[in-house]
Design brief:
It is a multi-pass membrane protein. The chain is mostly helical and 424 residues long. It is built from 15 helices and four strands. Helix content is 65%, strand content 5%. Helix 1 packs across helix 10.
Length: 424
């Protein structure tokens, strides 16, 4: 027992003197967390809270322009403007303002657009009920509503705006068709005086909600996404100082002297694992504390655990063991510190990229999403997302937790086998 305590003291002393390693473990993930959370939260607010800046040039000055103006004002994702510097802009001025980055979108309603729609509808109605033999088949005026957007705008946002405009135009067209049919019917049935308000005839309504635990009040945001991601990234970077410590003992001959001490040599590895495991737990507590205490002070949402703190602790233990076991394995197979530092760092970066830390999984090709399932960082990330975003608990995280513990057992087993083979 005294030998084991002495080993714990030695490892604690060594890692406390490794300032560069401690900075890598504690400072780097905190910086990543702050930068990514602030950046993504700003994007999130610009779309849903502040709205996308849109300039409307209404050359129609009739029903279509009114419909589009009113509809865009009422949407949550648009911040509508109809003037530039207090003046109604021309199409050219709208182009220039968007090119300067003042607006994300521009919507141009052409002159006489509503009149063209009315003529087309009246012609269509006349052909349908056969009251106008002079109506020409296919005589439909085309109305072109122009959408101008900043080159940096995401395609999904362009699709959203164009779909919204199509909805406004379809509603107007339906209204004109209904009014035209009603007018024609009144000519045959003069006593028909009832007027239906289309605005009150919505028979279908949509409700939106997140697909998470019905009792959970967690709302997805940049903090709920980034805190687990960069916490996992920081925990797995324990590989670099842990592997470096093992190689340093080999190069300095410390490992040979330790083998001459009474007691099993495995105690040295066990003591090293315990110390670095404790460091990863401290990392986890630090990141969670920052998410709870610091991030709200800089205007970001507070991290919500969803009432499943025991499940969060189990995931943290699984991640810490997996990272520590992988560090022991890298330190065993590498022969120089440069191999461990460069190889270990590159491996973690690749696993992070595959696991959805750097790039969200949903934007990856299907085959990449399948490959990502081999990354232990992905197992931890999905487990945290299950709790932080989906509001679930133990029943759904067990597959990920078992995978993390299995990865730890596998890496330690391979480490022991390699050590025995080298001794023989």
């Amino acid at each position: 027992m005294k030998q084991f305590l002495a080993i714990l003291y030695k490892e604690t002393l060594l890692i406390s003197r490794d300032r560069a390693g401690l900075a890598l473990l504690f400072v780097m993930p905190v910086i990543f967390l702050l930068i990514m959370s602030v950046a993504q939260d700003s994007v999130y607010k610009s779309v849903t809270e502040l709205g996308m800046p849109v300039i409307l040039v209404d050359n129609d000055q009739d029903s279509l322009g009114h419909y589009v103006n009113l509809g865009l004002e009422q949407t949550d994702f648009c911040k509508l403007s109809t003037t530039i510097n207090g003046k109604k802009p021309t199409v050219k001025e709208a182009h220039e303002a968007i090119a300067r980055g003042e607006f994300m979108f521009g919507v141009i309603i052409p002159k006489n657009a509503t009149a063209s729609i009315r003529r087309s509808v009246e012609n269509l109605v006349s052909q349908t009920i056969g009251i106008d033999s002079n109506a020409q088949s296919g005589n439909i005026d085309k109305v072109e509503v122009e959408i101008i957007y900043d080159p940096t705008t995401q395609k999904s946002m362009v699709t959203t705006v164009s779909s919204t405009l199509r909805e406004f135009i379809s509603n107007l067209k339906a209204k004109i068709i209904f009014e035209t049919f009603t007018g024609e019917i009144k000519e045959f049935i003069p006593s028909t005086n009832s007027k239906i308000n289309l605005a009150e005839t919505d028979v279908i309504r949509f409700s939106e909600e997140f697909a998470n635990n019905s009792e959970s009040k967690i709302l997805p945001n940049s903090v709920q996404h980034n805190v687990p991601a960069w916490t996992i990234f920081g925990i797995f970077f324990i590989v670099v100082p842990l592997a470096g410590s093992i190689i340093k003992e080999k190069q300095e001959g410390s490992s040979i002297r330790l083998k001459t001490l009474p007691g099993p040599y495995v105690l040295n590895h066990l003591g090293k694992m315990v110390v670095y495991f404790a460091v990863t737990i401290i990392q986890f507590v630090l990141m969670m504390s920052l998410a709870k205490l610091l991030l709200p002070l800089i205007g970001l949402p507070m991290l919500q655990f969803g009432g499943e703190i025991p499940a969060v602790i189990v995931i943290a233990i699984g991640l810490s063991l997996a990272a520590t076991g992988f560090g022991m394995f890298v330190g065993t197979i590498c022969t120089t510190y440069q191999q461990a530092a460069i190889g270990g760092s590159l491996t973690i970066l690749i696993l992070a990229a595959l696991g959805g830390i750097w790039v969200p999984l949903h934007i990856m090709p299907e085959y990449m999403q399948i490959v990502s399932k081999v990354s232990p960082l992905n197992w931890g990330l999905e487990a945290f997302y299950t709790i932080f975003l989906r509001g679930q608990g133990f029943p759904l995280i067990w597959p990920y937790v078992i995978s993390l513990f299995s990865f730890f057992i596998l890496t330690i087993t391979m480490t022991i086998i390699i050590v025995k083979l080298r001794r023989s």
